[in-house]
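fyi for ur records
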Amino acid sequence: MIDPLTALAGIQAAVALIKKVSKTVDDVSSLGPVLGKYFDAKSTATKAAVQAKKSKSSMGTAIQIEMALDQARRFEDELQLLFMQSGKIDVWNKIKSRAAAMDVEAAHDARREKEAAARQKKEMDEVIEIVLVGLVFVALIGGVAYLLFEVLEQCAGKCSFQR
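which gave:
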């Protein structure tokens, strides 16, 4: 599980770093490495928000993360304006497009992992069921064999089917 507070701190640190670096660079293209850290932190925070929402006891943390994500959206608007002012809106659009594609791929990966886990659980349940049926069968055969042995012992020459 992703620590929600760490995810929240990560996104806030990335925003602060970008704001600091954007004041010192001449070309927005040199923001690439720090933008990468920002989008990684945002992705982690989004996953943490989803997990925190699932856990009822962490609703307060989920709200904090949602508020941080809202601030991140507003910050992205500022970044978009920065790219527009520098004439690099096409670069910004590519960044956003790539981030969206990565989010879609992450969602597909999560779905595949969930399906694989469900398939593995089903297979394990089937194996357990087969083992239990086998044990019941062996116990039943053993019980019948024991009863036959006891019947033969009781007969001990008195029964007509023996010599």
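The mean pLDDT is 82. thats all i got for now
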